[in-house]
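Review form for a predicted model. The reviewer records the input and the model, then writes brief findings.
Reviewer: anonymous (R2)
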Amino acid sequence: FRNGMEGRHFLSNATIFTTTTTNNNNDNNNNDNNNNPAPAVRLLQRAHLAREKHIVLETRLDADDGLHKDFLQRIQSMALDSLHPSTNKSWMYWCVGRHVQWHASLSSHGSLRAVHHHSDLCVTPGITVGMAIRMKKDNDNDDVPRYNHDKLYKGLKQQEQEQQKDASSACGGTKDENECIRFVQGMVGAVRSRSVTSAGMKDIGLSEEVKQKLEKEQPKLWTLLKRDFFVSPDAVQQTNYHLLDHVKEIALDNIRGQCTRGHSCKKTSLEQLKQLIQ
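Model under review:
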C-alpha cells in the first residue's frame, strides 16, 4: 500500500510460504517432496510483474472495514485518466469522500452513522496510491510520499503549494494539472467498524442520547449498506453478538497489535482496551 514495494520481503523468502506435494515415482522408492509457491505468493508475484507494463493501484482495506461495490471500478477509471502518459504524472492518491460508521453496541444490530466529507482528512479504508508505468524501477517508488492517513491530505497539499512556482507538480504533472490527491465523490465509499477491533479505538461506544438522535436514519442507512456493500442485517447481528461475547479476547489481541508497524500507537487506546479487559 505505501510505496508499491510491499511484499518484496515475502517474495525474497518465498520458501516459507510453500505448499508441499508428494511425487510417487515408481522408479524410486523414496518420495520426493516438491515445494511450490503457495497461491498467495503466486498472486503477489503476478502483482509485482504487472507493474512493469501496467498502472499499479494499491488500496488499503482493514479486515473490519468495507468498500462500496463500485469503488474500485471508479478508482480504476479515474486512474486511467490521471495517470495516462499524456499527463506526465508519476503517481496519484485517492481517498473516500463520504462513509458510514457502524458502532457495535448492546442492541441487536448496533448503530449506523453517516459521516460526510472531511475537507482535509483521509479515512483509512479506500486510501489508494496509483503509480504510472514509468515508475517501474524499484528506486522510483521512493519518490512517492508516505504519510499517516490523518496527515496524508494536508501533507500532499503542502507539497503542491511548494511546487506551484515550478513547471511541474509534486507528482510529476504539468503546472495546470498539479492535483496529486483527490476525494472520490458521488458515493458513500466505505463503511468503518467502530468496535473493540479498532486499533485507534476512536468513537467506540455511543451515548444513549446520540443513539436516539440516530434512530430516524437507521432504516435508510441499513438499506444503503445492503444495496451498496452487500452487508445483511442478519450477518451484522451475528457479528455484533460475537463481539459482545468475546470482548475480552478481542481486546487482548488488539493490545498485542498496538504500536506495531503500520498500526496505531496511542496511550488512550491502551487504557480503553485495558478497561474493557478488567
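Findings: Strands lie at 18-23, 32-37, 56-59, 66-67, 91-103, 111-115, 128-131, 181-194.
Further findings: The two ends are 36 Å apart (CA to CA).
Recommendation: see findings above.
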